[in-house]
Amino acid sequence: MLLFIRYTCFALILLVVACQSKHDARTIISQAIDAHGGDAYQNKRIEFDFRQFHLVLDHKNDRFRYERTHKDSSGATIREVLTNTNFSRFRNGQRQTLDTAQTGKYSRAVNSIAYFVLLPFKLNDPAVLADYVGESQIDGQTYDKIRVRFRVEGGGKDYQDTFFYWFNRQTHTMDYLAYSEGGPRFRKAINPQTVGGIRFQDYINYKGDEHDTVSVGNYDQKYQAHQLAELSRIEQKYIRVTELP
Predict the structure, then answer these.
(1) Most buried one in 157, 184, 225, 244, CB count within 10 A?
(2) pLDDT tens, 205-228?
(3) Measured between alpha carbons, how far is 45 from 197 in angstroms, rounded to an integer?
(4) pLDDT 10s digits, 3-34
(5) What is the total count of domains within the chain?
């Protein structure tokens, strides 16, 4: 009898641990990072075109360098460089003097493009606070919904932002995401392609009502009910991935 009780308690403990692991946000994110490339993100240079911009994203160990170039309305070449420690902007090779507001505006613009392209890899950042929200059904597939916020320290100027991600329980891929900063948005991943061992995705960008009081965390339901209007397409072109020396 005593042996049976011990076995039953042990089995229950294993069941609880298994359930916690299944619904652990960090575990789900780790599985997604592996599904999208895992170690292939490390020590790589990623280049691509996004709209009128050309981006070069370097990741080496814990250091990063993001560079964005384009032509302004006068035809001048603008080059912006964001690293772990600073931001610089050049016009026709001449470094510009920027005030605090300009530095914040331009650096956030560069970081935003890099952030979305590098998802879900960027969710491994120490500043990320991830919580399991629940199970969701979208287009006949089962998803784990994760809410992501950021620590004040290391979270950047947008540490108060809140994002939601939907991870396919079968493939572990990140197929949907939503956020409210800058207007409520819901994105659906399309056109997946693997370059250099990394999965890249384009997105259909849907918008919600600016006055909508419903949390974007419930936009999976609005999407299913066809209550979100397509706003734009987020596409990366001419993607190249090379090893960093």
Answers:
(1) 184
(2) 999 887 776 789 999 999 999 999
(3) 12
(4) 445 544 444 444 444 444 467 999 999 999 99
(5) 1
Integer Cα distance of 145 and 218 in angstroms:
10
- For 115, the enclosing helix (H) or strand (E) is helix 100-117
Note whether 169 and 143 are within 8 A (CB).
yes
Look-up of token digits 């629940």: 134
Q: Using CA atoms, how far apart are residues 55 and 113, in angstroms rounded to an integer?
A: 9
Structural domain boundaries, residue 47? 2-243
* 182: confidence class by pLDDT, cuts 50, 70, 90: confident
Choose among 161, 184, 183, 164: nearest CA to 175: 164
Residue type, 244: L
pTM higher than the cut 0.90: no
Task: Tell me the CATH number at 198.
Answer: 2.50.20
- Tokens 């916020």 map to which residue? 149
Integer Rg of the chain from CA: 21
Residue 35: pLDDT over 80: yes
Cis peptide upstream of residue 184 (ω within 30 degrees of 0): no
The proportion of the chain whose per-residue pLDDT surpasses 70, expressed as a percent, equals: 87
Helix (H, G, I), strand (E, B) or coil at 26: helix
Beta bridge partner(s), residue 213: none
Find, among 241, 245, 243, 18, the residue nearest to 118 by Cα: 241
Tens digits of residue pLDDT in 42-53? 999 999 999 999
